[in-house]
Structure formats: structure tokens, C-alpha cells
Amino acid sequence: xxxxxxxxxxxxxxxxxxxxxxxxxxxxxxxxxxxxxxxxxxxxxxxxxxxxxxxxxxxxxxxxxxxxxxxxxxxxxxxxxxxxxxxxxxxxxxxxxxxxxxxxxxxxxxxxxxxxxxxxxxxxxxxxxxxxxxxxxxxxxxxxxxxxxxxxxxx
Length: 155
Fold this sequence. Notes:
There is one protein chain. The two termini are 19 Å apart. By secondary structure, the chain is mainly α. The radius of gyration is 19 Å and the shape is elongated. The protein has one domain (3-152): Up-down Bundle (Four Helix Bundle (Hemerythrin (Met), subunit A)). The protein has five helices and no strands. Helix 1 (3-49) runs antiparallel to helix 3 (67-80). It has helices at residues 3-49, 58-63, 67-80, 87-121, 125-152.
């Protein structure tokens, strides 16, 4: 293979890794917000059925997993600058995206439970957001450690 073809292939793999990072992060956010959103709708329905006010704050719980998309986007833009590294960027992008995305997915599952509990009891909101924050930390750590790894790659 000639050097120009190798350069193009490396660039393509690096860009694919960056895009995979965003795509997998966003996929996790989609699942997470979907789970939490469905639970919020169900919780509101219960409130309406019991003639109780429907807590608007559930939207905050529903939206919690969306930030992981931003983390994937930040990492993607940094990865574009090192895309010529090729395979290492592809591998890093896939695994970073999975880590960030799974954080969003499971944050959404926890937010779904929090929606149900908050609507039923009207208590514990601070605790629920605390638990979601701990789950969020996994995504933040993944982003930061992946950024450090990206910046260590010399091309």
C-alpha cells in the first residue's frame, strides 16, 4: 500500500472513532431519556388519576441523561485533531462512547425510578439527583481520561 493510501485510511479510522464516540454517547442519552420520559409520563398519569398535582420537576430527571451527548461531542471535536492516528482513535472512540453511553442509559433507568418515587411520595428529590450525579460522574471520568489519552497520542 502506498503512503498516501495509508494516510487516508488512518484519517478515516480516526474520524470514524470520533464519530463513533459521539454516536454511542448520544445513543445512550436517547435510551436514558426515553426510559425516564416514559416513567415521567406514567407518573403524571397516576397523579392526574388521583387528582394530585403533576410534579413539573420530573422533567429535570428526564433530562439528566442528555448531558452525556455533550461529553461525546466534546471528545469528538478533540479527537478530530488527532484523527490521523488511525486505529488508536477508532478504538478509543468506540470504548469511550460505550462508557459514556452506558452511563446515560443507566442514569435514565435510575431517573425512571426517581420519577415514580417523586410523583408518589413528593419526597427525596435531592437524594434522587444525588444518585443521578454519581452515575453522571462515570461519564465525566470517561471523557476526561479519554481526553488525557487522546492528548498523549503523538502523530
